[in-house]
Structures
1.
Amino acid sequence: MEEAYLNWPKLIDEALADWGSVGVRGEFDNIVISGMGGSGIIGDVVKLLALGRLSTPVEVVKSHVIPSYVSEETLFIGVSYSGNTHETITATLRALEKGARVAVVTSGGVLGRVAAEKGLPLFKTPSGLLPRVSFPHMLTGVLSILDSSGLSIAGRSEVEHARAGLESDKPGIAGEASEIASFAYSGDLLVVATHSPLEALAVRAKSEFNENSKIIVKVDVAPEWMHNDIVGYERPLFTSYRVIAFYDPDDKVGRRLVEFMVEEYKGHGRPVRSIPLKGVNLVGKVLYAALLFGLASVKLAGLRGVDPSATVSIGRYKKFASGVFEYRV
Ligand code: F6R
């Protein structure tokens, strides 16, 4: 599975080959991006990238429930690697009912069929991968749709530069990932700490350790952490934890906030590993973090002797969910 992650620059090239092929015409009041798990994280990351770059609000929907403001003025992007995720299908169908302009990113499945039948703009991601491994392709797909719809938050050249940076950083990332895996391989609860607005990347790291390494992970985000969690660390019931703290070295405030968190954890006698994010631009930093924690989580699976690709309990839930969500396509 490590090779699949290390293949990301090529996967980005594949997505870049389709850059500009899918867009939605119109004027939009808001953007809503729907998806779950490894597909849902794309919305979180797009929201992070849009924060300082786009005046149109971006909302992320990680359920079957969509905001009441979804209307003809909404650009709604349904992201589901398999195209068969009940929450995403339900949310997308509800958005269509409300007249939203809908685009889809998927490898096929029900959502792919809905897109074909209704003539919806579709950015196709290659099948045969795991959703979480398809991250850079789906991300490039959504960035491309936004760019082609007059709502650019990252242009093609930014993605190309980020891709080149990732390619040259690959050996360093693989080495750092091995060290993170050794650090995380313990009986301690793993805590992933960072600063706003990078929470999407901490959630991505958490999910990668959940799904690939099969472990429970807590996410701590400054500065909100300083207003509640911090007190819980004074007298915790569970004292055996260790922390991976990452920050954007170009964000002076974020960096200082994480330094404060690190001092707190260390003050409680817990081990901490601090990681500055590398990357030639913001997209590059996103890819760096995603690849670093993806590889680290697969390496940790190796140390633990578990299969990183299997997600048995998600399968169990999806079977159950087929009797819960009711939609007709
Ligand atoms: C990640 C993973 C899950 C799925 C999620 C939604 O690799 O397997 O987090 O991403 O269950 O499924 P899709 O992505 O097919 O919509």
2.
Amino acid sequence: MNKTKIAPSILSCNFLTLEKEIKAVEKAGADLIHIDVMDGHFVPNITIGPLFVEHIRRITSKPLDVHLMIENPAMFVEDFIKAGADIVTVHVETDNHILKTIDVIKSSGKKAGITLNPATPLNSIEYAIKEADLLLIMTVNPGFGGQSYIPAMNEKIRKAKRMIEETGRHVDLQVDGGIKASNAKKVVDAGADILVMGTEIFHSKDYIKKIKEIRNILGE
Ligand code: DX5
Ligand code: ZN
């Protein structure tokens, strides 16, 4: 079995010492760097844009996992790819032509992720899943770090895993929101391959210890 990937979300880190924070999670064994892009329309919060991603690209060789919580994402995917994103994930709720967006991302040699809000049913990705490289199950309503995991998402993760298996393709299953050492095993047992973690990692005192603790819990 493949090792679970851990993707610290920089939303919860100290932006004033961002380089130090990213190098520290890298050293602690992070597999990806998760970057949350919010526009104040699709979600009630505003964060960062392509320019910021470009700067992060210069300080890490880890894959940059860019989660777009913005309206009209198709208008911006190429900018984020140019800035150095390795994975670009788009919400189905805000893209009327998601197969086209997936194609644009994949044609640039990058990984195309699709995602849905907690209340959006999985049947909305019945066709997109046949083309995507990654499926992100949001386990909180997007917009903020530090929220609690929504328990009904256990079943959604399991169903998503089955849906992926039915495609016969390799699609990474990622979870994001309220993921902690205490529920990591549960979501991995349900089928998650990539754990996004914001507060659990960046609000801990020792990133090395925290990631070790998570790996121990997972038996990896
Ligand atoms: C929420 C973001 C998450 C967030 C997760 O809208 O997509 O990536 O940073 O933070 P935690 O792990 O604190 O729930
Ligand atoms: Zn995210």
